[in-house]
């Protein structure tokens, strides 16, 4: 049985954890390098360059120190009641099949001094399918709200589109900085853990061998 245990341990070494496949997920380049901007419709906005979409120093984690983060001011260009609009950033990633572990730090900030009924609905999408969402809801006067995305999901081998999206059912930030809440992303990563086919076959064989030994011992 010790030999089988050792072989199982060796086989588990064939289940590698792949490095982060996201490019510029911490935005330390000071740019959106590796990412492309997108809007949910022609009536959607990410905020104006002077206000919304930018890379800025911000304490997304609440640790007391600032790092570069992606900032937006999403919403509608022309208000239509009850419609979520906005957009975000996306990039193409290449992975092996396995389990994808995703992490990101997010925040919303109200700077206008009047509060707001929608700080932002944040979503993570893979190939257009929502994997996880978080809605900050309303936000108080000069308040900062923070949260994280931490989840795992199965992923197939090949090329995929990872999208980070924010929407609001109200107008987007105009030329006045801070007119509507800001939305932030930082420390975005996606790691894939897979079990190679040879390792899977070996583990199955070892399991069957262990069952056979146990049956012989019970029969003796």
Instruction: Give me the count of strands.
Output: 12
User: Which percent range fits the helix content?
Assistant: 10-25%
Uncertain runs are 3-13
Which fold does the CATH topology refer to?
A: Jelly Rolls
For the record, the CATH class is Mainly Beta
Describe the structure.
The structure is a single chain. The protein has 220 residues and is an alpha+beta fold. The protein has one domain (16-195): Jelly Rolls (Sandwich), CATH 2.60.120.260. It contains two helices and twelve strands; from the N terminus they run αββββββββββββα. The strands form three sheets. It has a five-stranded antiparallel sheet, with no helix packed on it. The chain has a five-stranded antiparallel sheet with strand order 3-4-12-7-10, with no helix packed on it. The radius of gyration is 23 Å and the shape is globular. The model is unreliable at 3-13 (pLDDT under 50).
């Amino acid at each position: 049985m010790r030999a089988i245990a050792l072989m199982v341990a060796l086989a588990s070494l064939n289940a590698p954890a792949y490095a982060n496949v996201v490019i510029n997920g911490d935005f330390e380049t000071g740019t959106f390098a590796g990412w492309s901007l997108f809007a949910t419709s022609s009536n959607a906005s990410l905020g104006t360059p002077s206000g919304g979409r930018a890379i800025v120093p911000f304490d997304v984690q609440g640790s007391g120190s600032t790092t570069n983060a992606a900032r937006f001011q999403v919403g509608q260009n022309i208000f239509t009641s009850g419609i979520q609009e906005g957009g975000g950033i996306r990039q193409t990633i290449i992975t092996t099949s396995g389990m994808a572990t995703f992490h990101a730090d997010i925040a919303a900030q109200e700077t206008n001094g009047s509060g707001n009924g929608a700080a932002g609905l944040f979503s993570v999408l893979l190939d257009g399918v929502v994997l996880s969402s978080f809605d900050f809801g309303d936000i108080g006067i000069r308040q900062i709200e923070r949260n994280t995305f931490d989840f795992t999901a199965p992923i197939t081998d090949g090329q995929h589109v990872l999208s980070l999206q924010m929407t609001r059912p109200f107008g987007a930030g105009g030329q006045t900085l801070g007119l509507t809440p800001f939305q932030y992303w930082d420390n975005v990563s996606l790691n894939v853990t897979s079990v190679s086919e040879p390792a899977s076959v070996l583990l199955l064989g070892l399991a069957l061998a262990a069952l056979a030994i146990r049956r012989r011992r019970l029969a003796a």
